[in-house]
Amino acid sequence: MLKIENLSVHYGLRRVLHDVALDVQSGEVLALIGPNGAGKSTLIRAVSGVIPIQSGRIRTNGDDFDALSPMQRARYIATVPQAVSLPPAFTVWETVLLGRTPYLNFLGQPSTKDEDLARRALDRVSALTLAERRVGELSGGEQQRVLLARALCQSTPILLLDEPTAHLDLQYQVGLLELVRELAHNDHLAVLLALHDLNLAARYADRIALMVGGEIKASGKPEQVLRPDLIEAAYCLPVEVVRHPFLNIPLILPKSQK
Amino acid sequence: MKFRSYLFSLLALVLVLTLSLAIGSVFLSPSELWAALTGHGSQTSSAILWSIRLPRTVLIALTGMALSGSGAAYQGLFRNPLADPFLIGVASGAGLGAVIAMSVKWPYSFWGLMAIPMSAFAAALITVFIVYSLARVGKTIPTTNLILAGVAFSSFATSLTSFLMLRSTGEVRRALGWLLGGASQSGWTAILAIAPYLFIGLGILIFSGHAMNLLQFGDDQAQQLGLNVTRTKTILLISSSLATAAAVAFSGIIGFVGLIVPHVMRLWWGADYRRLIPLSIISGGTALLLSDVIARVILAPQEIPVGIVTALAGAPFFLWVLRRAKNQGYW
Prior knowledge:
The structure holds two protein chains of two kinds.
Chain A: E1 2-11, E2 14-24, E3 29-33, H1 40-48, E4 55-60, E5 63-64, H2 70-73, E6 77-80, H3 92-97, H4 112-124, H5 140-153, E7 158-162, H6 170-185, E8 190-194, H7 198-204, E9 207-212, E10 215-220, H8 222-225, H9 228-235, E11 239-243, E12 250-254
Parallel strand pairs in A: 3-8, 3-9, 6-7, 7-8
Antiparallel strand pairs in A: 1-2, 1-4, 4-5, 9-10, 11-12
Chain B: H1 2-22, H2 30-37, H3 43-77, H4 90-103, H5 110-135, H6 143-167, H7 175-179, H8 188-206, H9 209-215, H10 219-224, H11 229-251, H12 257-269, H13 273-297, H14 306-328
């Protein structure tokens, strides 16, 4: 569904992404992992179209995204940004309805169908009761769900999430990622997300790509990427990889640096 | 809610319009006003209404609308509650442009008058560009930077304006009253001269509410939701500068209207720009007309420039907003 080919991005003279190639299929969750500054967020932002790319292609089936207007692109790709401060005076309802922008004219007057989709998106993230609240009054977990609802409202085949679990308590991390996995497996979205937590990636991703210094060092099934040698090299930290006691996935335990 | 907000604002405007037409050295009662408006009034009341009160009232109302509409737009564009055409220096820049046009020896004619808003518009655009570049840090525009750059540029432009006015004689000296924000230059020609700027500028802003709403979430999110951010921002900057230039060209520097009115509208009717901009435009007319009525009666028979009234009411309000923004992390 989403094909990234030989993608390179520079900030001035600094090369932040080099020759990145990735495929995300419909119905799967691909997690980007890697140390801070590896280029995970940059990759998400480049795919979402907000930073220019120097070379390479980002496309879906036939269409090259570079040739599309922001509005056309927003019908293919929805993005849940990294924890941001939202304009506090907007209500949840107004915020989620903005997800319909790619289908509205410049006046932005939503139809009953648009409102229906917004209601369903809010219901999907179990936030229907928040509709009348102002986003400034919400907790971090609630804000993240609202942003996910807004992305779902875009009705796109591709969903990007940049560190969706950052600053969330454990129960919200698990709740959000379970929902994301369900969106891939049941609704056949192609999901690309950046994740800090290796164990959450092991548990919720179908495939994992390990990024270091703007390059993809390894990609594949969780047990193929979450190997002690690869992780130790990427994070410069000795780790122990054990089997999860009752799930068939790897569990990463960092060892002391000394 | 939606209907009520418009009804309330329009009623207030009509009320203050009537007040502005009625009050002056000669009081015109509502029935006299109605007779004069429909062409059945006495010669005196018709003359007062058509050649003095009505052009002045219309010019003041349009000025208030333009200042408040562009204030709301600047606040949305810069995502900053303290942006207003006066504080960010655009109004002073436009004023400088207007005075440059006045000091060129135009014959005091139709085309001479036409040149004033044009020059004000060009200067307003240049000002926005300079202040924006001075205040910008990476992709954001911190409040303090915006206000500092605006105030610095504003005093520069104001000094240059004063210099130009003191240096020249005759025609431009009349502009001294203008500079403090008085509609002494009123007349139907002035209204005609600013009308195109006003209608294009405010016309675009009225329909840009949805884009403004998207911009409140930041450039990245706005673009990810499908907005062409660069193009939209350029169009909106030009439109608000058109409106500011139209306001300043013949009414001078009138501060704080563009700050207060959008704020009050936001407090009363919510943050949705699709409603906020039209409501700010309507109520901007109301607010400035009310200030003008006060300016006319407070030292009657003498009148004071309306800019003094708006500043007296606006400066304390500005400080209150500043405190509120600081305490509540308002945006």
